[in-house]
Amino acid sequence: MGFLLLPLCFLSLLLIVFSAAVHGANSSAFLTLIPGDLYHSSGALLNEIKALVGRHPDVLTMETMRTDNKGYAAEIVVVTYNHVKKQTSNKSKFRILLSFGQHGRELITSEVALHLLSVLAREQKILGMKPQCFNKILENIVIKVRS
Asked: Which of 39, 64, 88, 97 would bridge 107 by S-S if both were Cys, CB 3.0 to 4.6 A apart?
């Protein structure tokens, strides 16, 4: 039963981050014009993520994965969060893959990914969460974020 506690705590953390990212959104309107400064463009988002990883190389790493088949090519950026890199064995850690930004019209998902990474890097805090609890949740988790 104890082995489920850590992933459940992380899912709760993710829900808190998501709700904070969408707080204040107008959900009552059927069609809402999106202000140009509300969301990042793809290039600006990638630049923000690169800068975030550059500021926190102790916990974040970034890699670009490429593949091609029959003349078609695909490229994805994957950011890995690993709180305790010096641990001798990563086999005991939980691994979580989060994928954001699959659909071009769902702009909020990529913004949530950026917000989550900034929380993991400790540039932003989650209101009401004690740092000790946050550290305990994250010390046994490796998170890969694909955006």
From this structure: 39
Residue 108 token pair: 């909020």
With 0-12 CB in 10 A as exposed, 13-18 as middle and 19+ as buried, what is 145?
buried
The string of pLDDT tens digits covering residues 63-106 is 988 989 999 998 888 899 887 655 556 566 788 888 887 777 77
Q: Report the sign of the C-alpha dihedral through residues 99, 20, 22, 54, in that order.
A: negative
- In 3D, which of 31, 11, 30 has the Cα closest to residue 19? 11
Q: Could you tell me the CATH number of the domain that includes residue 64?
A: 3.40.630.10
Q: Is the pTM of this model over 0.85?
A: no
Are 40 and 110 a contacting pair, CB within 8 Å? yes
- Number of separate domains in the chain: 1
- CB-side exposure of 97: number of CA atoms within 13 Å? 4
